[in-house]
Design goal:
Layout: E1 3-7, E2 14-19, E3 24-29, E4 37-44, H1 51-54, H2 80-83, H3 89-98, H4 100-107, H5 114-120, E5 129-132, E6 136-143, H6 148-160, H7 167-185, H8 188-201, H9 219-222, H10 227-237, E7 245-250
Parallel strand pairs: 3-7
Antiparallel strand pairs: 1-2, 2-3, 4-6, 4-7, 5-6
Length: 256
């Protein structure tokens, strides 16, 4: 959209403009590296706030009684281990949402096969990665100053393109995800991190505390991944520019 509001004098050499579509862009010119522009986009609200957008597809009582009926001591309830296994709606929804960006990347983030996008961008130094967390969303990129327009067009395409499902790519994504979870279980550093999380987040209760918000993913979760929900989560998170603020820093020509 066109710039409708300019804000200067924000300190640190920052300039902000608000586009007609509500997107906020803040930039700072520097020459730390004369061939680099860093781009970061942030938006508040992750998959913890998706229930109004997805209706019955996504549980709306995140952390509430429908997810976990805990005892007064905060331990496991009568729901039991089997109730909070991979097929439990809460755990399945969280796992599917957590892997929404990875699945969309395999399908083709810009509505085109990723191989076709790579060919089209050959010779350009651009890139864009999306992450979705419990409470926020982020887009990260870096590019050469001469490719800034191409980089911004990629951002625009991400918000406007429709990701097309593909059964073969879904199978590939599931296989990659399953292998990564197996590798993580065999990685000493990951095992150490899991023990730290158990002590700091679960109070040493481990798998006796069946909170789907905190329990680590297992390879069995891949078998019940809801690809339709993942795609719906991704679309809901990356469709409204007015929720986003982008920050650019680097060798930017303000006249562009």
């Amino acid at each position: 959209g066109r710039g409708v509001v300019w804000r200067r004098g924000l300190g640190l050499g920052l300039v902000e403009l608000v586009l007609a579509n509500g997107l906020k862009v803040c930039y700072r010119v520097n020459d730390y590296l004369d061939d680099e522009i860093l781009v970061m986009g942030t938006a508040l609200g992750g998959f913890s706030e998706l229930a109004p957008h997805l209706g019955q597809q996504f549980p709306d009582d995140l952390g509430g009684p429908g997810w976990l009926a805990s005892s007064p001591q905060g331990g496991a309830s009568a729901m039991g281990a089997s109730a909070m296994g991979p097929s439990h709606p809460a755990r399945r929804a969280l796992f599917s949402a957590a892997n929404a960006c990875a699945l969309a990347a395999e399908y083709g983030t810009y509505g085109l096969p990723k191989e076709q996008v790579m060919d089209a961008l050959s010779g350009s130094r651009v890139g864009l990665s999306a992450t979705l967390g419990m409470y926020d969303r982020r887009l990260m990129a870096d590019c050469s100053p001469v490719d800034l327009e191409t980089q911004l067009r990629l951002v625009h395409k991400l918000f406007t393109a429709k990701v097309v499902p593909d059964a073969a790519r879904l199978a590939t994504s599931k296989q990659q995800l399953r292998e990564s979870l197996v590798r993580r279980a065999n990685d000493p550093m990951q095992c150490f991190a899991a023990e730290v999380d158990d002590l700091t987040l679960l109070g040493g209760r481990g798998k006796s505390f069946f909170n789907p918000l905190l329990s680590p993913a297992e390879p069995e979760d891949v078998d019940v991944l809801d690809a339709d929900l993942s795609l719906a989560v991704y679309s809901a998170c990356f469709r409204d520019p007015s929720e986003w603020r982008f920050i650019l820093s680097g060798n930017i020509d303000p006249r562009v």
